[in-house]
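For the sake of transparency, this paper describes our internal protein records without simplification. Such a record has a labelled line for the sequence and another for the backbone structure tokens. Nothing more is needed to write down the fold, since each code stands for a local backbone conformation. For reference, a complete record is included directly beneath this paragraph.
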Amino acid sequence: MTTKSTNTVWHHATVTRADREKLHNHRSAILWFTGLSGSGKSTLAHAVEDYLYKAGISTFVLDGDNVRHGLCSDLSFSDDDRIENIRRIGELSKLIIEAGVITLTAFISPFKSDRNAARNLVPHGDFLEIYCQCPIETCEQRDVKGLYKKARAGEIPFFTGIASPYEAPEHPELVVNTHDQSLDESVQCVVDLLVQRGIIKQPVAATPTEE
């Protein structure tokens, strides 16, 4: 077992988060998109980022697949490794919002306790849980990666919704019904939430899907 170092001390930067937020002209926050595989988390997170980017707002998306190519490439999909995966993402998100950037995370993050642990890393109001609600039947119909088919065949162990549970949020800041709302409607719901919470001002941006 690795022993945690006792020789580390948190360094307080000369330039503060408030300074960086002032530079960006908006607050920073974590937008935590959660939902089943195929529920539209990544699609919505990237569409929201595109909208905000066009409005001159500083953002960064942490995507589940991308993170597992590097930062979390040593982790499997067992329950223990999923917990560690979300722990790392929570800590990374905490660092990124110190840069004054709106951080959007797109992870299944199936366990309530892990999402709550990530929420508790930052001050109240900095963590916005966005539940991409979608029936598993619809997720399976989409099945862009063919994962549900493999899971049903027993080729993917610990697959959420099939062999491993998904614990839906009880009190998320926002529920987006991605199975019956258009992408543009879903994006607007997220943007409205950011405006209501005082994180951004009402942006003037092109429609998210416009080229």
